[in-house]
Each structure stands twice: as C-alpha cells, then as structure tokens.
Please model this.
Amino acid sequence: MHQRILIISIILLLLLLLFEITMTKTPPMSPPDLPCKVRLLLSLLTIVINTVRRSNGTINRRLMSLFDLKASPSSKPNNRVKTSDVMVDPTRNLWFRLYVPAAAITTSTTSPSAKLPLIIYFHGGGFAFFSANSKPYDDLCKRLSAELPAVVVSVNYRLAPEHIYPSQYEDGFDVLKFIDQTTIDGFDLNNVDITRCFLAGDSAGGNLAHHVAVKASNHHEFGKMRVVGLIAIQPFFGGKERTESETRLSKGSALSLEQTDWYWKTFLPEGSDRDHAAANVFGQESKDVFGVNFPATIVFVGGFDLLQDWQRRYYEGLKKSGKEAYLIEYPNSFHGFYAFPELKEPSFLVKEVRDFIDKLCYAPSGISF
Ligand SMILES: *[C@@H]1O[C@H](CO)[C@@H](O)[C@H](O)[C@H]1NC(C)=O
Model:
C-alpha cells in the first residue's frame, strides 16, 4: 500500500514536470497546435512505455497495470452500446468484448439489408501492450459501434514477450472460426450479418488484421462468415531497411524508432530480423500468397508517423497484387491519433470507414447478398 502511494506521488511529480516541459517547448517532431491535454498524455505515455520495458526484453506488467486503465462491460446500453465479454478458450485466456449498438437492439429485423455489418477489431500496442478492455480501446470500439453503426468484436489476444509470433495471429484466426461456428449469447444473427465481416485494427492490430485476412482468404472454408473488408489504421509493418520517414521521425512524440525495434525484437522468433514475413509483408521472405478472396483494404496514414513509408508501400503492394485498396492520409496526425476524441481526425476516420463499409456492402455493383 505504501508503495502504491509512493508511486502515485512520483507520478504526480512527473506530471507537474511534464506540464512544465510541454508548455515551454513543443518537440520538433510533433504536429503543431496539439491541445495541451493531448501533448501531456503523449509525453506521459512515452515515459510509461519506456519505463516498463526492461532491457532484458521483459515488461514490468505490475507497473504498467497502474497506467493501463480498464473498462468493465456494461449490459445496460451505455453510450448507445451494450457490451459483454465472451470467452473463446480459457486455457490461453482468449476472449473478446462484444459491442452491440442500440440500433441493432431496437430494429430487430429479418430483412438482410437492415442487418448490421460485423467488425472484428484488433487493438494496438506493439503486440505487447493493452487489452480489449483497456479504456482507450473500449472507448474507440464503442464509438465505432454506435456511429457506423456495426456490431464490433474486440479480440483479447495474447501478448509478447510472454507469447511471441505467431500466437497473436493464431488467436485472431481462432476468434473468426469461433464466431463462424458457435452460437453466442447476445450475438443475434437476426441483427448482424456475418457474410459482411470486416477485419480492423490499429498499429500492431492493423498488422494482425492483415495476417488474419491472408489466412482467411487462403486456408480456410468458413460456414457462413465472409471477410469483405480490411481496415488498417496506421498498421505496424517494417523491415531491415531504414525508410526516409523512419529516419526523419525517429524520435517521434508518440512512437520512436527505438520502440518499434524493441517491439519487433520481442515479437519475432529468435534468430529472425525485421525482414521476417510478419513485418515486411512485401519483402523477400514473404511467401504469403493472397487468396482470391483477399478483402478490399483501406489504409490510414498519418504525416507525423514514422511508420508512414511502410504503410504506403503496403498500400502500393496491394495495388500491384491487383487488390482493391484505398489510401487515406491525414498530414497532421501522429501515431495513435484515434485515441484522442478531442482531435478532428478521429471523426474523419469514422466517416471514412462508414463510406468504405457502404461502398462494399450497399453499392449497386458490390457484393450481392
Ligand atoms: C528481467 O529483469 C527483471 C527485473 O530485473 C527480472 O525480474 C526478470 O526475471 C528478468 N527476466 C529475464 C528473462 O531475464
């Protein structure tokens, strides 16, 4: 208990110090005109992530848990969305949080065009941090569910370094199979159309969504489920080569090159490097053949994100492979901007995702249902 008080005092002191620093000078690698609260939170996040990562490649989970605030599920529509947690496999604590918007609850119908699309969401955090019930991700999924609207499944996959590649990809894919095969409480097939399923994720979650999509388009016959779209929000890709944006923004305010190197090192198998196919998806080691059913993809890129060059290459690689792909750029956005609803870009993102879903589900020339 004393330890906790001590830690909280230190945090408060740090916050004061941070406030001083962030108010007196803006780091050159941050977008201009960021609200003071956002700058403060970004600085705090950087300090926390850099403190809990140990030099021997492990994470101080106890310290991290003080900062990684969790949200409980809520069976009463809170913010127009009902949430519940569904266990998939207790032996590896694989579960997901289900978001059902009031729109689905009130307009129960058997007309297929009135059913909501399903979004399977993978949270970010370098494969190592956060969970489906982390407050910022709970807020984001609630917002997506209410505003699109859509039924959202947010996957609580295992984390590195305790579980390395390919545990996260297996967990993601197993959730798809589970939803395809299982009758789930609160998941009413009269309200949600699993033939219109979208995979989505930010940062490492965007990487995960991609690899799960590759697997889904290739190696598996689903019963009813069809993956029609992939929403990659600032996806985490990389390679041995240093790109221009990695060099220029190496000390970015929300994500640094030192951090991305550390994430790859803890996630990838011993003896591999950043050209591993998990990171460099269009590199030499990548043997993934995208199935003919690889979904249409929308990629979101921020002008202050050091990962932007890899993300543009991803988009270009998809186009070259003959896939339907869209690139959306927000010049003033840093890595993780969607966690800050006070900015305007998260609203643009929701609108863009809604248009993407409409295009794939409702366009006259689109997929028939
Ligand atoms: C890493 O360091 C921490 C703290 O110093 C220690 O508790 C842990 O056992 C170490 N782990 C490994 C795998 O060396």
